[in-house]
Amino acid sequence: MYPFRQGCYAPRNGWYVAAFCNEIGEDLLSRWILNQPVVLYRTSTGEAVAVEGRCPHRHFPLGESKRVGDAIQCGYHGITFGADGKCTFVPSQQTIPGVYSIKSYPLVERGLWAWIWPGDPEQADEALIPDMTDIGFDLPGYTAIPCHSLHVEGRYQLLNDNLLDLTHLGYLHAPSIGTPDDAATPEVREVSARKISSKRYMYGTPQTPFMQERNAFDGKIDRVSGMDFHLPGFHAGIGESRIPEEHPTRGGELLHASRVWHAVTPAKRYTTNYFFAMSSNDPDGLEHARKALAPVLDEDAFATAEIEKMISTLDEIPPELMLKSDATAVIGRRALQAMMDAEMEGPAPGFGKRGQAG
Ligand code: FES
Ligand SMILES: [Fe+2]
């Protein structure tokens, strides 16, 4: 499906963010992930687990069921499944055949996030989780916080496209985090096997409206803005502003530095779980930034939902007008399509061959 080949909407063999760690507690948390119902919770030992959210008996949602110790007891006829997915109790019979089970997903907590592998568990290699140093998570002097967990009414690739093309900052987010220079400045791009990086270096550029509010400096600045896409659904951004070198007394002084992390995880085929987190060298400003960025994320969610409505209503999606600035997004789409093509050669459990799934 758009913008991928028919039958494709997201790679399954990859680590996606299922939740912020602090969202997972004793209570059952229901979440759709790659069109699969999932239930997340923490066992009595504190371990976060993810199991299938559908009872295999009559498809009752296990997220609407109840915990009995570390197990989930289906709210319909009482079949009970342990945290490893194995059936432990059937009220109406003594024997429990081994096939009575639900899926249990690989889940790893790292940084602020709980990472899930929705595809073939045999291929779930923890080394493929984005490296915390590489994403700027453990920078000395920085404080990191989870900020917003959103449900967006649009397919996940629309959000990847959004984050791979920051020329929208000065327009969709004109009142807050962008200026026209975000679009007018050429990108410096680096592409490797599982990461696509794009950066813009702006010199003597106007401050964004948000910077003007916070920075103790009036005038043009030097600014770096960039985003690293860690396939298949994690974007690590960098923002830095400095006083230009030419300034007589404060040249090169760092005004503000932050890291932002956007995790986009397909929920259903046409909806997305969107997790936004950030860190800054200014811990006092973090809570202010968290609140101030909520309407900015709403603008992206609005654009995504409107585009989803448009493309899912048209009889046929016409070819897109492609700009030079679309190069990074196109590279991202191709890389994701290649991951999906590789999966279709050897399908992961629960996913048919090309053309059979959506
Ligand atoms: S639907 Fe779950 S026990 Fe019947
Ligand atoms: Fe945006």
Question: Which tags fit this structure?
Answer:
358 residues, 7-stranded antiparallel beta sheet, 4-stranded antiparallel beta sheet, binds fe (ii) ion
Word description of this protein:
- The protein is α+β, with helices and mostly antiparallel strands and 358 residues long.
- 20% of the residues lie in helices and 31% in strands.
- It has a 7-stranded antiparallel sheet.
- Helix 1 packs antiparallel against helix 6 (327-345).
- It starts with 15 loop residues before the first strand and ends in a 13-residue tail after the last helix.
- The structure holds FE2/S2 (inorganic) cluster (FES) and fe (ii) ion.
Secondary-structure map with pairings?
Elements: E1 16-20, E2 29-33, E3 36-42, E4 48-52, E5 66-68, E6 71-73, E7 80-81, E8 87-89, E9 104-105, E10 107-110, E11 113-116, E12 143-152, H1 156-163, H2 169-172, H3 181-184, E13 188-192, E14 195-205, H4 209-214, E15 221-230, E16 234-242, E17 254-266, E18 272-280, H5 283-313, H6 327-345
Antiparallel strand pairs: 1-11, 2-3, 3-4, 4-9, 5-6, 6-7, 7-8, 10-11, 12-18, 13-14, 14-15, 15-16, 16-17, 17-18
Task: Specify the overall morphology.
Answer: globular
Which CATH class of the largest domain?
Alpha Beta
CATH fold name of the largest domain: Naphthalene 1,2-dioxygenase Alpha Subunit, Chain A, domain 1
Give the ordered list of helices and strands: EEEEEEEEEEEEHHHEEHEEEEHH
Structural class: alpha+beta
Measure the end-to-end span: 7 Å
Largest sheet: 7 strands, antiparallel
Give the DSSP E fraction (strand runs of 2 or more residues).
25-35%
Can you tell me the CATH superfamily of the largest domain? Naphthalene 1,2-dioxygenase Alpha Subunit, Chain A, domain 1
Helix content: 10-25%
Bound chemical compounds: FE2/S2 (inorganic) cluster, fe (ii) ion
Contiguous helical run count: 6
Rg estimate, integer Å = 22 Å
CATH architecture of the largest domain: Alpha-Beta Complex
Query: How many domain modules?
Result: 2
